[in-house]
Design brief:
Blueprint: H1 12-55, E1 71-77, H2 82-92, E2 105-115, E3 123-140, H3 148-175, H4 177-184, H5 191-213
Parallel strand pairs: 1-3
Antiparallel strand pairs: 2-3
Helix pairs in contact: 3-5, 4-5
């Protein structure tokens, strides 16, 4: 009878190799932990930055202004950089009666009349005045590639420019009643000249105001 020998497979060598592999893996993981934590920190910071950028509202473009008692008209300019906008302002900015080219201008007219105007038998007690004030301002509608900083800077500038022009408007509003007072103190033959004297004084204020404010530059009304 032939005895069959049991075939036993020993795994002692395999267990040793497995233990070595596990220990090597553990050592590798331990060495990698600082790098892993660093990567997690960087990714977290990046996500926070993106979330903050996403939640920051875009600046609102200022495309119109309001000045009480005045009608605003606009000339449109285009561009997506400071230099482009500056060139457009230099190209299309309005020119005043004195030849100065600015970035905005206020034109005003005061008219008066009375019963019997132009005659020696007039009634100055019926004198009345009307005024019309037109302010011309630049208008820029930002393009899609205009930077938020440029939009913000333009908004600050355009409001400062409007504030400067408001000084001219306020001058007319504050002083045009003096025309009526001058007419009432005059005669039918001198009333027109007295009214014109008031207009001359109002115009001189505009000149002095621009000189004092350097046409609005001291008020921030210069771009960029």
């Amino acid at each position: 009878m032939v005895r069959k020998r049991d075939k036993r497979i020993t795994c002692s060598g395999s267990r040793h190799n497995l233990r070595s592999a596990v220990e090597a893996t553990v050592r590798s993981v331990k060495r990698s932990l600082p790098i892993l934590f660093c990567l997690i920190f960087i990714l977290a910071c990046n996500g926070l930055t993106q979330a903050t950028a996403t939640n920051t509202p875009a600046p609102t473009a200022v495309t119109s202004v309001d000045i009480p008692h005045a009608t605003i008209t606009y000339y449109d300019i285009i561009g997506s950089t400071e230099n482009e906008l500056r060139n457009q302002l230099d190209m299309y900015g309005p020119v005043g009666p004195d030849g100065y080219q600015g970035e905005a201008i206020t034109n005003w007219h005061i008219q008066w009349t009375w019963d019997g105007y132009g005659t020696e038998t007039c009634d100055l007690r019926t004198a009345r005045t009307t005024y019309d004030i037109q302010v011309t301002m630049p208008r820029w509608v930002p393009s899609k590639n205009a930077s938020p900083d440029l939009i913000t800077k333009w908004g600050i500038y355009i409001l400062a420019l409007a504030n400067h022009e408001k000084g001219h408007v306020d001058n007319v509003i504050a002083n045009h009643p003096d025309v009526i007072d001058a007419i009432h103190r005059a005669t039918c033959t001198t009333a027109e000249a007295k009214a014109q004297e008031v207009l001359t004084r109002i115009r001189q204020y505009d000149i002095d105001y621009d000189a004092m404010m350097d046409h609005g530059i001291t008020q921030g009304a210069r771009f960029p």
